[in-house]
Write a structure and sequence with these properties.
This protein is an alpha+beta fold. It has four helices and 17 strands.
Length: 309
C-alpha cells in the first residue's frame, strides 16, 4: 500500500510540474508567439536615427552598448527632439507645461545596466524639457521579479512605484527603437513589454502585440532591399477599434537590420529613419559623451610587455 501511495505521489508531483511548464513556458509562445531573439545586448557599434514628427525632420537619436570584462553591459542612448507639437496627451505635469508652449523640445538620456546573465539590473532616465531646463529623472531597479521605479521632478513630489517584471524583460522604450530584430518573416506574431516615460507612473509598462503584415522593398544606404513591415498594437479592449490600437510600425530587412520605426506618441507620429554606420559613429562620439556618463569604458586589450613577447 505504501508503495502505491508513493507512486501516486510521484505521478501527482510530475503532473503538477508539467502543468506549470505548459502554462508558463509552452502555452504563452503558442498563443502570443515567441519573441524574436533580441540583439540589444550585442549592439557594440553605435546606431543613430534621424527623427521626424508628422513628416517634418526635427531631431536625432543614438544608441551604443559597452561591455566590461565580466560581461556586465551598459546601454546608453540619447534622443534630441528640436520641437514636439503641443502634447495632446500624456501625464498631467506634461499637459500643464504644454499649455504654456506652442511646442516643446526634449533631451532624453537613458542608461540601462544588464548583469552577466543578460538580465536587466537597473536603469536611469533623464528627461529635460529644453525650453524650461528642468529635468525629470526616473530611476529603477529589478528586485525579485519587481520593477521598483522612482520619479523625481520639481513639478510633483518624489514618488515611488512597484510593478511586476517579466523574467526576460529588456525595458524596450518608446523613445529608442531596436536596432536589429532577427528571424522576422511574413505572418510571425509575438508580444513585447514597452516602457513609456509619458505613461502614468502607476502603469508605465504596456504589453503590445506585434505582427509581420507585409513584405516591402525600402532603400538602405541608397540600395533597395527586401524587408518586412511589423505592426505593434495595444491589447484588445472594449470600445477601442483595431485602428485605434495601432501604436507603431517597424521595417526590418531580411538580415534583421531595422531600417525605420514609427511610433505614435503624445498625439504625434514620430518616425525614426536609420542613418549610415559612418554617421552613427560620428554622432555617438559627439552626443553620448560616454567619458562623462558611462560607469565603464570599452574593454581594452592588455599592452604587450617584453616578458610576453
Amino acid at each position: 500500500m505504501a508503495n502505491k501511495l508513493y507512486v501516486v505521489g510521484i505521478l501527482l508531483l510530475w503532473a503538477g510540474s508539467m502543468s506549470w511548464l505548459v502554462s508558463q513556458r509552452i502555452l504563452p509562445p503558442l498563443v502570443a508567439g515567441e519573441s524574436p531573439p533580441n540583439s540589444l545586448l550585442h549592439q557594440r557599434d553605435p546606431v543613430a536615427w534621424r527623427l521626424s514628427v508628422d513628416g517634418s525632420e526635427c531631431g536625432t537619436a543614438v544608441l551604443q552598448a559597452l561591455v566590461d570584462d565580466v560581461s556586465v553591459t551598459e546601454i546608453h542612448s540619447r534622443l534630441l527632439l528640436d520641437r514636439l507639437p503641443q502634447p495632446k496627451g500624456g501625464p498631467p505635469w506634461l499637459a500643464a507645461i504644454g499649455e504654456t508652449l506652442e511646442a516643446i523640445g526634449l533631451d532624453v538620456r537613458t542608461r540601462n545596466v544588464f548583469d552577466p546573465l543578460g538580465q536587466l539590473a537597473r536603469f536611469s532616465m533623464s528627461i529635460e524639457i529644453t525650453e524650461l531646463n528642468e529635468p525629470i529623472t526616473l530611476t529603477g531597479r529589478i528586485d525579485r521579479g519587481k520593477l521598483k521605479l522612482r520619479v523625481r521632478s520639481r513639478f510633483f513630489p518624489d514618488r515611488s512605484f512597484e510593478h511586476d517584471w517579466p523574467e526576460q524583460g529588456l525595458l524596450a522604450t518608446e523613445l529608442m527603437p531596436e536596432s536589429k530584430v532577427l528571424s522576422v518573416y511574413m505572418g510571425r506574431k509575438w508580444r513585447k513589454e514597452v516602457f513609456s516615460p509619458f505613461a502614468p507612473p502607476s502603469a508605465p509598462v504596456e504589453v503590445l502585440d506585434a505582427e509581420v503584415v507585409e513584405v516591402c522593398k525600402p532603400m538602405d544606404d541608397g540600395k533597395p532591399v527586401r524587408a518586412c513591415r511589423v505592426e505593434f498594437r495595444s491589447l484588445p479592449a472594449s470600445g477601442v477599434s483595431e485602428e485605434g490600437r495601432l501604436r507603431g510600425t517597424m521595417v526590418v530587412s531580411e538580415t534583421g537590420r531595422v531600417l525605420q520605426h514609427e511610433k505614435f506618441l503624445l498625439g504625434s507620429r514620430i518616425t525614426f529613419d536609420r542613418l549610415s554606420d559612418r554617421e552613427s559613429i560620428r554622432l555617438a562620439g559627439s552626443l553620448l559623451e560616454l567619458d562623462r556618463y558611462a560607469a565603464m569604458t570599452k574593454p581594452q586589450r592588455p599592452e604587450r610587455t617584453p616578458a610576453s613577447e
